[in-house]
Fold these 2 entries.
Entry 1:
Amino acid sequence: MTENQAAADQNREHEEKLPRRRRFSGPALFLAGIAIIMAAAVYFTTVNRAAGEIFTYHHLAMDTGIELALHAASRSEAEAAKAKAFAEMARLEQLLSRSIPASDVNRVNEAAGAAAVRVAPETIAVLEAALKFASLSNGAFDPTISPLLDRWGFLGKQPRVPSETEIKETLLLVDYRQVAVDRAAGTVFLPVAGMGLDLGGIAKGYIVDQALARLADAGIQHACLSAGGDICLLGPRPDGSPWRIGIRHPREAGQLIGVLPLSGGAVVTSGDYERAFTVDGKRYHHILDPATGLPASSLASVTIVALSAMEADALSTAVFVLGPERGLALVESLPGVEAVLVTPDLEVLVSTGLKDKLELR
Ligand code: ADP
Ligand code: MG
């Protein structure tokens, strides 16, 4: 979020006590969205020094609020570019969302154990990237987590804590190494009935990247696109200065852990404060550790900075599951990837390349 969005996010925090049906991310909160637009409008008028103007848009997609600020020579240029970006988001959501019955992902899941399914090249691209991050993280990130998420009821209205036996049985169906992708034929096959894909930890990042690419195709050179915590930047701000991206405090609504000045690339945060429910005083959230079948608990939030939002999205989920030591080691091993980790007792761990860049609050 930009610094001014912190206040708007406070509203969001209040709404997140109950689980809700989401495709990729936080609930679509219209009021928070309006507040964000207003904050953004005030913010961006102060940075509008280059020729042209900054236009801001709010939009609902992927069950979350989308904030877009772009610099264009005229309103008509801005409107045309914005329309292309949002149309791209809608098109890709139709392929990748598990909440859309006819999506590629659901068609593959329905045919598990029975048949290979022909899918769009974009679906293959995201799935192959997901499998790469699964292998890089030794299965901490696993796009076949779907049956486990269903056991917990995270997609439905009534989540619940499954028994140990249920978790054990379900984990037998979670194994990214069994996914068969035939790139030449354009098909995906899940060999065991009951297996299922869920691209919720990576698809939003991919979609944000593609939407930003459509803005660039339309001639836009400066833009900031945010989809419920996944932020992607096109160039620096119009005056050449870096955008200032706030990292949300995982426990104090409306507060920031720090601010990152960035002139491009992507920033994505995964936190345990997102989609969660409470039973007998214990909170359970939606990022599950495939090793235990339980919500990962060794971090409160993970922010990843990378060149693409897809990479940052997958890695934020992977590092969240891996925990501080293994997570930070993975980040340090990847060129162009940096991270800010917040532990449950609010210790802030920063990767080498961000140590001099992050402005702590
Ligand atoms: P958000 O969608 O809230 O921004 P993330 O990017 O961390 O947060 O993605 C969390 C989503 O990823 C979950 O809602 C679920 O769809 C999926 N997921 C949960 N656990 C895993 C995992 N271990 N590996 C891959 N995907 C996961
Ligand atoms: Mg993610």
Note: The mean pLDDT is 89.
Entry 2:
Amino acid sequence: MAANVPNTFPKDFVFGGATAAYQVEGATTEDGRGPCTWDEDMHRPGSRFTADPASDFYHKYPEDLALCEKFGVNGIRISISWTRILPEGKGAVNQKGIDYYNKLIDTCLAHGVEPFVTLHHFDTPLPFFHAGGWLSRAIIPEFVNFAKICFDAFGDRVKRWATFNEPWSIAQNGYIAGNFPPHETFQMAKAIQIEHNLMVAHAKALHLYKTMGLSGKIGIVHTLEGKVPITDTPENRHARDLDDAMSNRFMLDACFLGKYSDETMSLINEILRENNGTLVTEPSDFDDFAVAAKEIDFLGMNYYSSHFLQTWDGESKVFNNSTGEKGTSVFALHGVGARVSNPAVPTTDWDWPIYPQGMHDQLVRIAHDYPNYKEIFISENGMGYKDDLVDGKIDDTPRIDYVSKHLRAIQEAIAEGVNVKGYYIWSLQDMLSWSNGYNKRYGLFYVDYKTQQRIPKKSAYWYKLCSEQKKIVPIEEVKY
Ligand code: BGP
């Protein structure tokens, strides 16, 4: 780390906490909510967990927001469950869903916690999922309709909107890694098509917002995994470029260039060729992209990890470590590359490399490659950990260490001129992890799932000091 970069954040830097509706709310059948794709998925035979009651945020939000205020968390990412508002994805609006989010947003504001609202955080309405999900373009106008209802209902108070959370995860996890519904594997062409369709939906919803005369800002949340060749050979660098194109660059181009650059398309076409696939687009998609790229206000960047790439011409193979049994992950894709372990880089129990340099590098890359980006928020970052409750306390020092190093990477990027305006730790409280369940905890606030009691972890006390002092506070200064 560069020693000459001051340990300080701008006065208006947000120290936030992130959540997602399906992971925290519970109450999946309450007050008229309709099913989303995950409700069916988590009730299939062999499923290890469900989303009820999760962290019971549907009822416990006043307590969680009071904790935010007490612990210096001055921003919260929430998402709106599409099927609370429109139980069948379309048709009649469920007033109870509107009422819930009105109360939630008002409570955020009453506690001085700025809401950052995501319209879609993986919870596609079940009827649309059955009709092909994001592979089908039929869902695009339905999403825009849902977005309009939300902008109309909440746009007077919500000043920061994201259209989607992590389009790449929808594509990769559902169609390549197989750990999200519909659990398909190695369908690189489908994944790329889904990315494109999501970018069209994003562009249309974003432009709609801009025509409504509301006073807030709108962007998108991408997960930007760093990509590094495991050794510096031309073959490994090419594997890096292919993985980066499919995971990051394709969608960044759509959002910020308003088109796919020739270099990006050359990499994407190589992946499609190797996997016997094609990409279907319509000419008007690029008109939508061009308009939205001029209008986008910010990028939300989720960053947890980077991948170390090696060239790979074998068959595709993936094993998802969803239990925290360290060292079990496998990820190699035909026509792309293999993600291999780097002995010099530590990992979490779920085999995610801990590599803050990757966050810095992605921030600098955005500023360099997409200079019209305006502002960036780190909209998720944090460490999955099997927190132990000992004598009523949780000492999560490894998490503090992880977050400190990533905050430092942000300070360095800011010092190099990147406009980073805030950090939302994943997660605010412990919650359901999509494919891992409840033993992978991320929260500042421990959730006892038997009683729903909240217990602030050591990291919560530390985060409060950082937020108050607008700097990375040494762990020794935490009284716990
Ligand atoms: C991001 C998602 C979050 C969250 C987080 C941690 O991709 O936006 O919803 O789940 O990752 O992932 P996991 O729960 O798989 O450890």
Note: The pocket of 6-O-phosphono-beta-D-galactopyranose is lined by residues 20, 23, 165-166, 169, 223, 302, 380, 384, 426, 433-436, 440 (CB under 6 Å).
